[in-house]
Give the backbone structure.
Amino acid sequence: MRSAILAVCAAAALLTGCATTSVPPEAEKPVPLVTVSRDGDRWTADFTLPSDLPTWVFLRSALARETGKPWREGQWVVETPGVVLERRGHFDILRAADGGPVPRNLRIRMTPKAEDLNADYDPALMFTDGSTALYAGHFTVFPIASPEAAEALPMDLNEANIDADNSRITWRDAAGPVLFEGERQAAPVSERSNIYVLFGQAALVDSPRLATVIDPGLPGWLGHEIKTFAPRIAAYYAERLGPGQTEKPTIMVSWNGPTPNRRSMGGSVLPGLIVMAFEGDNVVTESTEMRDHARWFIGHESAHFWLGQTIRYEYTREAWITEGGADLMAMRAQAVLSPTYDLMSALQEEVDDCTTLAVKPVASANQRSEHRAYYACGAVFALAAEAAQKRATGGDWFDFLKALIESNRDDRKVNREEWLEALLQVTGDPDVRREIDTLLDEGAENPAELIARLFDRTGVAYRMESGKVKLV
């Protein structure tokens, strides 16, 4: 399927990022053309569709994390008469109100705002100086026969025979050039989806190991941690795992303000780029606890240059491979680089959360908007793999992961079977996957029992305390 790489991200990529490239335009069939423009406070997206069809589907249609509703309904309005923007099944669609073909040329008026999405890139990063970064992938549409056909689509489009190409987008700002792939350009054209384009004057600051675009309103201690800790933890990952997707990332950081009683750190990784958004009065002032949490967050996002970009999962239901794996990478690295870090509490939180969430099948957690299950249970499985690696070779999680990465660098994918086969290679126990399979496919009335059996088989040290698994 031509859209396979795109679709990995489309349904619930959990922010690991998927690189896409385009063949020369003359070799392609016609694709949707979009012009995204800002003129003062007015934002528009002008679509030119390549064919007369009654329904067009937005490839990326995640729900807003806080409201559980489609994010476009609060940010986009169709100005072209007779065209309806609505939700069908798992996707936002454009359809003609009269059932005929959608007009080839249509305009959408946008009101960008910061909004955290379930398992997808934020549509906009908002900066306190008025700058705004928009994510290109949210403008990709593909045709389908009817709204009913759109409604029948599975959440993970890798499981459907969908023919989708990136929209070709022209970016324009009446105020001056936009920041596009590290350079200021007047009207750049993008043909790949996984980029953010910055409107406004927020500056790109270059250094030997890192380039940053940091909101001027961001608390100073956070900016310092990003500039100093990100290169350190990336160097540690490279030392343990070999080269990642990039040697010199760009980090784009927005600040959504000191919202009372809130601590929010959101982020995602694209090829060569980490985007972060911070919010809340609880992150304004530095403390040991906040510094350690911020460093873990930086470590998790940076980990995706290896586990998520160098190799990625094949299907959305396998997101536990990258998210739980990145969690454990960040924890183990931080334990080396930050002496104050409370590693055991962080690991115990993963076990506790997996125990709570795995009463239902972990693999289908995205369908219930329970994405935390991929992180927590993925980390539990990674702990088991790490313990098995230690038994077999004296190694650790990075040793297990390095072998997995090296064996899959060519196709850049690792699926469930490959991960479990790697676990079998270090345990020699063909039954070791039983508990993992059950938690993934069925869930359990008492997940603690299955986690305990998994830890028994692999060598994770724990004790049972009032029916709960407690790491020791």
Observations:
- The two ends are 47 Å apart (CA to CA).
- Residues 177 and 358 are 49 Å apart (CA to CA).
- Residues 220-241 form the longest helix (22 residues).
